[in-house]
């Protein structure tokens, strides 16, 4: 239990520091190092294929191949952002940046979602134009590059598969490459259709299919990143249920100023003011209650909150300006 202030309030912090001001320690450094290595390998693969696809698209006149190259360019930019975020995430916390640079990966995911949306819009407009006035497409280079792109994406997926659950950045990078692989499949199929039937619109149809893959994912990424940046309550956490569980503990009268948000992937945080009976507060019997509250928010709900801060107050205490 930490020291008392003038109004006899006691602040308990779920990270075990007892409310002392210090930089939090979280087991993410090893994961960040692993992410950096994985992303560097994927960046080398995507950048190589991107250069080859642009050349092949210009030579063949294939919009589907150019769309896939645009998607690959977005992926490469996204991987660069994710790589930078992974490097920043390894920086230690300080008094000026108490959580370190963990939120950089969320900002990177938001930027990536924006780029995906722009690419999707541009490709969709161009594909509709080509459906109306199809252009001649050389199927052979389109097919070759589609196969090369698919092989590179398959290799990148293998590299990222083991780390896709580490952060929002890694999930975004994995989904980027997975959709790239599907885009490459679309390029290959379109090339085969054109070679066998001469139906040039297959290229535009494949482009639209790639757009269908891009846009929903971009919206999903933007929603997830925006929720974190706006400090919204984690999606799977019901604060009403949390309040009911806390007030159901022995000696708890009420809970107010209950807040929960996500600092970065895998780092949800919760704070609350907990009002207890005057008798329990006066007796100083709050340690068991503190452990019960920490265990409740860390184990009972779908979002496991390991970093929680509870301020315990007597029932007679009144704090002006508190919110529910």
What's the SSE blueprint?
Elements: E1 10-13, H1 29-60, H2 63-89, H3 104-132, H4 139-161, H5 168-197, H6 201-229, H7 239-247, E2 252-264, E3 267-276, H8 278-283, H9 287-299, E4 307-314
Parallel strand pairs: 3-4
Antiparallel strand pairs: 1-4, 2-3
Helix pairs in contact: 1-2, 1-4, 2-3, 2-5, 2-6, 3-6, 4-5, 5-6
Explain this structure.
The protein has 324 residues and is α+β, with helices and mostly antiparallel strands. It is built from nine helices and four strands. The protein has helices at 29-60, 63-89, 104-132, 139-161, 168-197, 201-229, 239-247, 278-283, 287-299, and strands at 10-13, 252-264, 267-276, 307-314. Strand 2 (252-264) and strand 3 (267-276) form a beta hairpin. Helix 2 packs antiparallel against helix 3, helix 4 runs antiparallel to helix 5 and helix 5 packs antiparallel against helix 6. The longest helix is centred in the N-terminal third of the chain and has 32 residues, at 29-60.
Which terms summarize this structure?
324 residues, alpha+beta, 4-stranded mixed beta sheet, 9 helices, 61% helix, disordered N terminus
Question: Could you provide a short overview of the structure?
Answer:
The protein has 324 residues and is α+β, with helices and mostly antiparallel strands. The chain has 9 helices and 4 strands, in the order E-H-H-H-H-H-H-H-E-E-H-H-E.
């Amino acid at each position: 239990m930490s020291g008392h202030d003038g109004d006899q309030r006691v602040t308990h912090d779920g990270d075990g520091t007892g409310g002392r001001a210090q930089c939090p320690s979280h087991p993410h450094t090893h994961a960040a190092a692993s992410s950096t290595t994985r992303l560097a390998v994927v960046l080398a693969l995507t950048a190589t294929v991107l250069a080859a696809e642009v050349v092949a698209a210009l030579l063949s006149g294939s919009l589907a191949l150019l769309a896939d190259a645009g998607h690959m360019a977005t992926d490469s930019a996204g991987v660069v952002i994710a790589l930078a975020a992974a490097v920043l995430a390894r920086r230690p916390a300080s008094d000026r940046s108490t959580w370190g640079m963990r939120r950089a990966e969320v900002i990177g995911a938001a930027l990536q979602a924006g780029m995906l949306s722009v690419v999707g819009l541009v490709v969709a407009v161009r594909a509709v134009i080509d459906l109306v006035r199809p252009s001649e497409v050389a199927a052979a280079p389109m097919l070759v590059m589609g196969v090369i792109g698919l092989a590179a994406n398959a290799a990148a997926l293998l590299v990222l598969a083991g780390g896709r659950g580490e952060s929002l950045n890694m999930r975004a990078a994995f989904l980027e490459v997975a959709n790239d692989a599907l885009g490459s499949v679309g390029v290959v199929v379109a090339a085969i259709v054109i070679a066998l039937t001469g139906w040039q619109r297959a290229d535009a149809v494949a482009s639209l299919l790639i757009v269908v893959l891009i846009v929903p994912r971009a919206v999903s990424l933007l929603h997830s990143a925006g929720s974190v940046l706006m400090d919204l309550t984690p999606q799977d956490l019901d604060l009403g249920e949390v309040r009911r569980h806390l007030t159901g503990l022995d000696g708890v009268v009420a809970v107010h100023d209950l807040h929960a948000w996500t600092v970065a992937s895998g780092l949800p945080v919760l704070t609350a003011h907990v009002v207890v009976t005057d008798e329990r507060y006066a007796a100083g019997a709050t340690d068991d209650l503190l452990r019960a509250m920490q265990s409740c928010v860390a184990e009972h709900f779908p979002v496991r909150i390991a970093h929680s801060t509870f301020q315990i107050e007597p029932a007679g205490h009144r704090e002006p300006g508190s919110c529910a």
